[in-house]
């Protein structure tokens, strides 16, 4: 239990550190390097388009991250035991949550019916921001080291070759750091994309990870109804900007 509590503190700090490093590399290294291209017009330069896209993805990722924390599942009270359907007592949060899915260590909160949509949007935009940074980093390294990534094997062999060049003094520390971040962005991006896809599949089936883990049988419902319960009727607004889960099944029940 002590290890889980430590992880509950370290994981959010790790996410924030990675976010700050990514912002720093994008704003002070990748984007300025794109302004050096004299063949582009100032209004439609790749640097401005790239910066606008990165800010859009980052704002949605961090905005939904904050909303996941702010909209933590309400404590139903110790009078409701975790044996009731779709409720669970989390020892880390010390609360009984409705339609509990899992405890997310990177946000330090439980994920339930109240913040599920914001959590999925957080995973989606984190994945897109990491993969976008990966592409920008590859373009920077390609220019800095005068190498081509047309062959997919070039990226797979980049790390071992870079390590040998770094210890021989042929590679700068900043360039080696960017190369390490490339593989970190790739790992985080693919992990978030896979986790997001898995959560959406569970939502389509009307299940949560907790119910699947416990082998609970859920009542079959149309997949459109299951999606509406989580994303609400205003799903397009939440897809473009980080907003509360307005119009979902949880908020309709709360209004009543």
From TrEMBL:
Membrane-topology descriptor: Multi-pass membrane protein
Cellular-component GO terms for this entry: membrane
Domain Palmitoyltransferase DHHC span(s) in chain numbering: 85-211
Broad class of where this protein is predominantly found: membrane
Transmembrane segments: 12-31, 43-67, 119-141, 178-204
Endoplasmic reticulum is among the record's keywords: no
Catalytic activity, reaction form: L-cysteinyl-[protein] + hexadecanoyl-CoA = S-hexadecanoyl-L-cysteinyl-[protein] + CoA
InterPro entries: Palmitoyltrfase_DHHC, PFA4/ZDH16/20/ERF2-like
E.C. number(s) listed in UniProt: 2.3.1.225
Pfam families attached to this UniProt entry: DHHC (PF01529)
UniProt keyword list: Acyltransferase, Membrane, Transferase, Transmembrane, Transmembrane helix
Compartments (UniProt record): Membrane
GO molecular function, one term: protein-cysteine S-palmitoyltransferase activity
Written domain comment of the UniProt record: The DHHC domain is required for palmitoyltransferase activity.
Similarity comment text for this entry: Belongs to the DHHC palmitoyltransferase family.
UniProt-recorded name of the protein: Palmitoyltransferase
Native source species: Pelusios castaneus (West African mud turtle)
């Amino acid at each position: 239990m002590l290890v889980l509590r430590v992880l509950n503190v370290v994981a959010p700090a790790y996410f924030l550190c990675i976010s700050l490093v990514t912002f720093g590399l994008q704003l002070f290294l990748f984007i300025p390097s794109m302004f050096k291209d004299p063949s582009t017009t100032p209004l439609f330069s790749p640097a401005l388009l790239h910066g606008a896209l990165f800010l859009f993805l980052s704002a949605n990722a961090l905005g939904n991250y904050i909303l996941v924390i702010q909209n933590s599942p309400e404590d139903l009270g110790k009078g409701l035991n975790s044996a009731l359907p779709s409720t669970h007592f989390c020892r880390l949060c010390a609360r009984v949550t409705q339609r509990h899915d899992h405890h997310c260590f990177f946000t330090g909160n439980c994920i339930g019916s109240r913040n599920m949509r914001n959590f999925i949007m957080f995973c989606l935009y984190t994945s897109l921001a990491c993969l976008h940074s990966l592409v920008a980093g590859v373009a920077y390294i390609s220019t800095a080291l005068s190498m081509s990534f047309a062959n997919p094997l070039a990226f797979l062999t980049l790390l071992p070759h870079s390590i040998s060049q770094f210890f021989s003094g042929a590679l700068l520390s900043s360039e080696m750091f960017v190369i390490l971040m490339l593989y970190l962005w790739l790992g985080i991006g693919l992990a978030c994309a896979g986790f997001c896809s898995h959560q959406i599949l569970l939502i389509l089936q009307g299940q949560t990870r907790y119910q699947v883990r416990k082998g609970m049988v859920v009542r079959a419902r149309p997949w459109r109804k299951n999606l509406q319960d989580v994303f609400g009727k205003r799903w397009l607004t939440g897809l473009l900007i980080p907003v509360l889960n307005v119009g979902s099944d949880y908020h309709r029940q709360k209004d009543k």
